[in-house]
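Anyone else keep sequences and structure tokens together like this?

Example one:
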Amino acid sequence: MLKAKITCFADEISQDLEEQLDVLQQEGISHIELRNVWGKNVLALDDGELAAIRQTLDQRGFQVSSIASPIGKYPVADDFGPQLQSIQRAIQAAHALGTPYIRIFSYHPPENANLDTSRDEVLRRMKQLTEIAEQNNVVLILENDNDLYGTTDDRCLEILQHCASDSLRMAFDPGNFVKNDIKPMQDAYPRLKAYTDYIHIKDATFEPKQFVPAGAGDGEIDALLLTLKERGYDGFLSVEPHLQHYMPHASNPKRVVTAVRALKQLLERANYQWE
């Protein structure tokens, strides 16, 4: 039976790993996207901390879906050396925690500059990161995000085509496309579907520009899920709530549970099984 896998950016629940897992477990989720824990970014965790996380996850029946690194969320004008160190640490974390996936971004161009002036350097960096991934048996997943070279579907496609590797795939984020006035299913997905191996469940409205629970915005997530089901997609649906403005007075766990249950409701409506 076809089943998608629900995972979650659980640092939006708490910085405490046990609290993160408690909430996910209550919702029947057994995967976690690791970004921050104990007040540290995943790439700042030492070997002992990674081993402790792996032990806790194994004991509680959890698996890591992706290392949610900040690689590429830096100015393209910055020295590339620290980023090369970061990708090596991300690879070590991925191997230690048993996931092939590492989330990355596509660099901030200079403010008010023509994006074309950054094109060659962005593509050079992305190609080098991809080659390192190939050598280390990991898969980089490119998130479309705000104020980056790869904010739009056409520039994400340009990066993916330039690198032309199974070690660089797309982490398709409908909410971030909406934030940039792009219709996810009408415009972005048809271009990027051949490269899309990972999904961020994040919805948003065109006006006002605000993140909302799945199905409450303009992210066309219901249509996305139907398309994924027809495609036979059994990969990850990663809930990234970002509901601080939508639910300003709610607790962090409440926001995450709201986001998770909104996705479950859409999956049920689509008769799309999950685990």
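And example two:
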Amino acid sequence: HGKVRCQCRLSEAVEPGTVWTWNAIGKAAGAWGLDKNANESQRGFLLNHLIAEELPEHADGDHISNSDPITGQAAWYDVRVRIYKADDNEPAQTSPQFKTHKHTPGTPRRTPKWQAFFAGLGKFKGGDK
């Protein structure tokens, strides 16, 4: 249905023949106040581009939505994929890439800064907050 270029690691920790990914690890540049070069937009990815909105027509009737019947979430859990090594001349970023989202009027502009929380200490790095 589509094509995604992304990082891949092989593991014996999942069922054979299964591809595992975090849900929504990728974000479009500018979305959620992300910088246009944020890792989430350049190295993260979504499987949405591989998911058909409807299941193929079958003998029992018309097309059926390719979604969970309770939640309506896209049925990413049964997407079939083919994995292969990217060519050496391909860019070192995920694909597809989209235009950077414009700032949404009425929302605060994000000031990029690092923030770290140390569990158990109740403190943020750089001082008490």
